[in-house]
Write a structure and sequence with these properties.
570 residues, alpha/beta, 7-stranded mixed beta sheet
Length: 570
C-alpha cells in the first residue's frame, strides 16, 4: 500500500517553500578570523564518531556539539527514519511531506552544531511498541544493511547510541536503532556480511573501535553514581566554553535543537558544567576515563604523514587574525601534499576529508566569493537560462577563475562579472527518496544514495580555481536567485529547477508527466489562467493550489490547465 491522501499529500505551498531550502544549499557565510582559526585547529584531528538514533530530534545535540567542536572530531548523526510519522506543530503537512520538513530541520541543526547527517531507507510509520514490530514492517536485514553501509562509508572510530536495547527507550523504533547499531558494529568489519557492498559497490570493511550507549537519568536515576564506580561507565563534561566561537557547547546545542520546529523542540541555551554519561557496550575498554584513549587521531593514520603533520601543526600557530590570507601559502603546501599522496596509504579515507577542509580554508582565508546568479526566481526544465558568475577576491593573493575555458584574473577587492548561458536540467528538483513509490521502506535504486541526507540541487555551474603555485581545485555551486525584501533585506536562495512559464496558449506535455502539475499564481485572463509547467510532483501526490484547477484532456495528447478564482484542490 502506497502512502497517499492526507499523509502523503504535499501542499503546493509546502513544496514550493521547501524547494527553495532543499538540499541545504544556502550559500555559506564567510567565517570570521576566530572561526577560521577554529577550523584550522580541526585540521590536526583525524578522529570520528557516529551517533545513531531512530528519528529526527532524537539526537543529543549537546554531545554532538561537544564532539564536533570541543574534541574537533568528525561527527555524524545517523537517523533510521526521516520522521514521517511524527506530529507537525507548524503546518498541515504529514507523512512524506513532513519527512521533507524534518529532513531539512536536521540539516539546519547540523549546520549549527557541526555534525553531518545520514539516513537509512526506513520510513517512520508512527508509534511502535516493540523493535520486533518495527523490524517486521521495515525488514530487519534491509535496514541493518543500511546501517552497515553508513559505518563502512563514514568509518567511525567510535559509535554512540541514544537508546538502550532493553526497550527502556519507550518506542519500538528507539529500541530498534540500538539493536541495529550493536549488530552493525560487528558486521561492518566482516567481509561475509553484505558482500555486495564490497564486491559490487566499492566499499571496504571497517571495524569501529568502541560502541557506547549515551545513558542519562531518564533511564537510570543513579547513573551519576555508577559513572564514579562502574568501570564501564564514563562521564564527559559537554558544557565547556569555546572562546573562539564565543559560546558554550551547550549554548550551541540549544540553537541546534531549536531547529526541530515542527516538533516544538525549542531549547534553552544553557551555560556551565553539563555531564553526559556513556556506557561501554562493545570494543576495548579505555584504560583511562577518556573515551578516545588509545585511538590514534593524528596524521599518522596517513602514511607517510610527517610533512602534512608539520604543515597542519604550524597553521594555527602562525595564523594572523588581521591577515588570514597570510596562511594561504601554507594551505597550498598542505593542499599539494594531500593531492600528491598515494590513496592506498589512507585506510580510513582521511585524505578526501582533509582536502575538502583545506579547500574551504583557502576560500575562507582569501575572503573569496564566487556565486552564480539568475535574474529569475525559477528555471524552466530543459530551457536555456542566462546567468551571471560574480566573483570577488578580498585578499592580496591573486587567483584565476576558469569557466568555459575562459581564464579571468581575480584582483584584490574587485568584483568580476561573467555572463554565461546554461541549459536547465531536464528533471525538476524533487526529494530523491520520493522519486519511486514506497511502503515502509524507501525504494532507492542507486545504492550510492542509501544513507545520503539529500542530493545537491540539479542546477549547478562548474568552475576551476587556479592558485598562484599552479595547483587548482574545482567547485560546482548551485545557481542562486537574489532579491531585496523590504522587510527582510537581501534574500538569497537556490534556484529551483522546474518552475512555470505562463502564456496565453500553453500546455502541459503529458509524455513527461508522472502525476499532478502545480497551478500558477499570475492571472492571464479575467477569471482564468493557463500555463506550461516543468515542476512535477511524484506519483500519487496531491497538489493543493491557490485556485481550483481543472485538468482537461485534449486531442494531440495534451492537458490544459484552467484555474478559477476560488480555493480548491487539484
Amino acid at each position: 500500500m502506497h502512502f497517499r491522501s492526507a499523509r502523503a499529500g504535499l501542499t503546493l505551498s509546502a513544496f514550493l517553500g521547501l524547494s527553495f531550502i532543499s538540499f541545504s544549499q544556502r550559500p555559506p557565510q564567510q567565517p570570521n578570523a576566530a572561526e577560521i582559526l577554529h577550523k584550522m585547529q580541526k585540521l590536526n584531528v583525524l578522529g570520528s564518531v557516529l551517533y545513531i538514533v531512530a528519528h529526527p530530534d532524537d539526537e543529543n545535540t549537546r554531545l554532538i556539539t561537544w564532539l564536533a567542536n570541543g574534541k574537533k572530531v568528525r561527527t555524524g548523526n545517523l537517523s533510521l527514519t526521516r520522521g514521517e510519522g511524527g506530529q507537525n506543530l507548524i503546518g498541515p503537512e504529514l507523512g512524506d511531506a513532513l519527512g521533507i520538513i524534518r529532513t531539512q530541520e536536521l540539516l539546519e541543526a547540523r549546520r549549527i552544531d557541526g555534525g553531518e547527517q545520514f539516513f537509512t531507507r526506513a520510513v517512520d510509520f508512527g508509534y511502535s511498541k516493540t523493535a520486533e514490530e518495527s523490524f517486521a514492517k521495515w525488514g530487519k536485514e534491509q535496514v541493518l544493511a543500511d546501517v552497515v553501509r553508513v559505518i563502512r562509508t563514514f568509518r567511525p572510530d567510535v559509535i554512540i547510541t541514544r537508546f538502550p536495547t532493553d526497550g527502556g527507550g519507550g518506542h519500538g523504533h528507539h529500541t530498534a536503532s540500538a539493536i541495529l547499531a550493536q549488530e552493525a558494529f560487528d558486521l561492518a568489519g566482516d567481509p561475509k556480511a553484505f558482500p555486495e557492498q564490497l564486491m559490487k559497490q566499492g566499499l571496504e570493511v571497517w571495524q569501529p573501535r568502541r560502541l557506547f550507549f549515551n545513558g542519562s537519568s531518564w533511564w537510570r536515576k543513579d547513573v551519576a553514581d555508577l559513572a564514579k564506580t562502574d568501570p564501564d561507565w564514563f562521564s564527559v563534561d559537554v558544557g565547556g566554553y569555546d572562546a573562539l566561537l564565543g559560546l558554550s557547547y551547550t549554548e550551541i546545542a540549544g540553537r541546534s535543537r531549536s531547529m526541530h520546529k515542527s516538533q516544538g523542540f525549542g531549547a534553552a541555551e544553557t551555560r556551565g558544567e553539563m555531564l553526559e554519561y556513556l556506557h561501554l557496550e562493545k570494543g576495548d575498554r579505555p584504560k583511562t576515563k577518556d573515551i578516545f584513549e588509545g585511538i590514534d587521531m593524528t596524521w599518522s593514520k596517513v602514511s607517510p604523514s610527517a610533512s602534512m603533520q608539520a604543515i597542519a601543526s604550524r597553521l594555527p600557530v602562525n595564523f594572523k587574525v588581521d591577515r588570514p590570507d597570510a596562511s594561504i601559502a601554507d594551505l597550498l603546501l598542505l593542499h599539494k601534499a594531500i593531492t600528491g599522496r598515494d590513496k592506498n596509504s589512507d585506510p580510513q579515507h582521511w585524505l578526501a576529508v582533509k582536502l575538502k577542509e583545506v579547500e574551504a580554508l583557502l576560500v575562507a582565508c582569501s575572503g573569496l566569493v564566487v556565486e552564480v546568479l539568475s535574474p529569475t526566481p525559477t528555471a524552466i526544465t530543459s530551457e536555456t537560462a542566462k546567468l551571471k558568475v560574480v566573483a570577488t577576491n578580498r585578499s592580496s593573493q591573486q587567483f584565476d577563475l576558469v569557466i568555459d575555458g575562459r581564464v579571468t584574473r581575480l584582483e584584490e577587492n574587485k568584483t568580476t562579472t561573467i555572463d554565461i548561458e546554461r541549459t536547465a536540467p531536464s528533471e525538476a528538483d524533487v526529494p530523491f527518496w520520493l522519486e519511486n513509490p514506497h511502503t515502509s521502506l524507501y525504494t532507492i535504486p542507486d545504492a550510492a544514495d542509501i544513507g545520503v541526507a539529500d542530493r545537491p540541487p540539479h542546477f549547478t555551474v562548474s568552475y576551476e580555481l587556479r592558485f598562484p603555485d599552479g595547483s587548482s581545485t574545482t567547485a560546482s555551486p548551485p545557481v542562486l536567485h537574489r532579491w531585496v525584501d523590504r522587510v527582510k533585506g537581501e534574500v538569497t536562495q537556490p534556484l529551483p529547477c522546474g518552475g512555470c512559464r505562463i502564456g496565453a496558449c500553453s500546455k502541459v506535455d503529458r509524455a513527461r508527466s508522472r502525476g499532478f502539475h502545480q497551478g500558477g499564481h499570475r492571472r492571464e485572463h479575467p477569471g482564468r489562467f493557463v500555463e506550461r509547467c516543468g515542476r512535477m510532483l511524484p506519483t500519487r501526490w496531491l497538489a493543493r493550489v491557490p485556485h481550483a484547477a481543472t485538468f482537461q484532456r485534449q486531442a494531440g495528447g495534451c492537458s490544459w490547465i484552467r484555474c478559477h478564482n476560488h480555493e480548491g484542490t487539484g
